[in-house]
What we know:
Layout: E1 16-19, H1 26-31, H2 33-54, E2 57-63, H3 90-110, E3 114-119, E4 121-123, H4 134-143, E5 157-162, H5 163-167, H6 170-174, E6 184-187, E7 190-193, H7 194-201, H8 210-222
Parallel strand pairs: 1-2, 2-3, 3-6, 4-5
Antiparallel strand pairs: 5-7
Amino acid sequence: MIRHDVVEPILLEVDQIYHLACPASPVHYKFNPVKTIKTNVVGTLNMLGLAKRVGARFLLTSTSEVYGDPLQHPQVETYWGNVNPIGVRSCYDEGKRTAETLTMDYHRGANLEVRIARIFNTYGPRMCIDDGRVVSNFVAQALRKEPLTVYGDGKQTRSFQYVSDLVSSPSHQRAHIAGHKSRFTCAHARTFPCWWLRRMLFPSIIQAPTAARLSLIDRLVHRPCS
Length: 226
Ligand SMILES: NC(=O)c1ccc[n+]([C@@H]2O[C@H](COP(=O)([O-])OP(=O)(O)OC[C@H]3O[C@@H](n4cnc5c(N)ncnc54)[C@H](O)[C@@H]3O)[C@@H](O)[C@H]2O)c1
């Protein structure tokens, strides 16, 4: 294993590049927004340059956040989004949009074989407890026996996908298939408002004894979304 910051160039002999490097949680990507955008732009440029040099197939893990605050639901791949270029999330949203642009420009200009997977909220075992997104927030608060916090009016929606569904999704499988021409794949699961997610996952959370709460949590973290 090599530990390397993708913002710095690297020379390797490889057949395939899976470019996942980037903090994914808002808490983490807002912590150092300049580093986040450098990772998305300079890091992606370095990985694409490497792919071109060695003739490797390239997969970019993009995000549903490229749609910003979407005006269309659900989002289809032909929708171009509604993104704020100067907000606190822009380092991630605009960084990933630029990463997608670079990926397609290398495809068109250098005939690089590329894939872009726009991933939605993924949950499952080994999530970081301080990830800051709604599923891990609910689980962490339930484990601490705290009230579950729903931000705002709870009507904001999120799409969720179980981690193994993502790993076995067509975007990743196709990355293995030589000569496959599909370039865009949306890894899209089910969409829920946050208040509904809380009710669905923890129906009697306020009164439930600890054991009942834990079994609900157990069901949550092990149940595939499909
Ligand atoms: N988890 C999700 O729900 C989700 C949703 C949409 C998109 N994605 C994308 O999928 C990819 C992986 O997400 P994750 O949930 O595993 O994130 P994660 O934060 O758990 O892991 C990201 C990894 O990237 C590494 N990294 C960050 N900056 C780097 C740099 N400059 N150089 C080298 N490595 C660097 C981190 O050390 C970490 O190991 C990311 O590109 C993310 O944007 C994830």
